[in-house]
Amino acid sequence: MDYMIGVDIGTTSVKTVLYDTTGKMQGYSNNLYPLYQDVPDMAEEDPEEIFSAIIDGLTTVLRKADLKNGDLHGVSFSAAMHSLILLDENHKPLTRAITWADNRAVKYADELRENGVGKQLYEKTGTPIHPMTPLSKLIWLRNEQPDLFKQARWFVGIKEYVIYKLFGVLQEDYSIANATGLFNIFNMDWDDQALEVAGITRDQLPKLVDTTDQITGMKADYAGVIGMDANTPFVMGASDGPLANLGVNAIDPGVVAVTIGTSGAVRVVTDKPKIDPKGRVFCYYLSKDHWVVGGPVNNGGIVFRWVRDQLFAPEKLTAEQMHVDSYDLLTEIAEKIPAGSDGLIFHPFLGGERAPIWDANARGSFFGLTRTHSRAHMVRAALEGIVYNLYTVMLALEEVVGKPSSIQATGGFARSALWRQMLADIFEQDVTIPESPEGTALGAATLGMYALGMIDDLSVVKNFIGVANVHHPNPDTYSAYRALVPIYIRLSRQLQSEYKNIAEYQRTHVDISKEK
Known about the structure:
alpha+beta; Gluconokinase; seven-stranded mixed beta sheet; gluconokinase activity; globular
């Protein structure tokens, strides 16, 4: 049997998955690492901790599998987008990995949006202006930490750092580069205007390569620790969003992937770059003739966790004592409330928001509270608010690529029948739940198989996954959701004028050390 490993470098863990050539999972490891949030808006990770997690994951999977020589054909990477690490001339980190969730560059992202330069850059890079991007982070570092900025010889992301550590070469795939805000999607090269705005030069960035590019010759020390032939090909792979589409077989025109994990996203694949005149959605490279257009949201399952921890602490404790899942208990409570939560609307912006409003200052709120509303209404409204927001991303996406032909939904939320049904009801469309528990890692492995000639076409992924559930919209809920979604959208627009004011107040008056 031939095998391929997909390595998914995520925000909180590395998932290492061994697949055979039928797409069946034959080995799995999930290695966690902390997210550092020492000051307001910070979200950093230690690149050495991530690198160790990757080594541990590869070692664990291979030891358990006990493969014969030649059985493992290669390893392929997925990585979270928008990370930034400053390296010195010896390729040693000067900073931790500043992640997509870091909002400290919000001031400079706002300036780009307001002065018109941001729109010019978006139209060339396909990356919306937001503090998540390395573009904004570089401007922030140049202005706020000039001495550190001047020390840097290289500006890279976490995947590039890992590859350098393993192979001694510094290169970056088109997909990860695309998400930096520095890459021109029409000439497939670093963009001169973006580099000038960021204050860096082309020779401070890695060499650009395709997502199917292969590297061999791993350093002997690491190969020995992992227990892998040093000449095993490593495929560059792509970023996590595009690979998630591939991993759930959402690469045909009109097939939309909706993902809700800790955060969420709505994405569809096109055969060429497409830009939204209103700047609400991204356009990221996957492979030749495959571009992923969509919008990410900050607030998915993390909102459900907040509701559980802050509003339902007694129930959480009870669930632990009864050895039942606390989220299942909350879902049962929410199910007793009618669709629409009796007119209670929740904007789920607990951590700012990306698509479709791209406002790092956005804050959450309940609207419509009356004495008749209970905590049960609040948990249902929170779940609905997450889906309302995803639906607004879908509306923006439709203006760019047209109406979806089908929806594939994945992520931790897919465990909940209530949430799956909400998605079908609010989107008013059938929702299919693919049977691929680690879609991003499977996408990485599939791209790797294609790069190494193990499969002829990416569409083979349809043979790798099954269908776990199909949910049909319930006409009984249409009247509630059709009435409430427009209110949700109008409120989002009206509240935006005050988001910056309340966010500034919180930054200057709230002691982050007291936050739970």
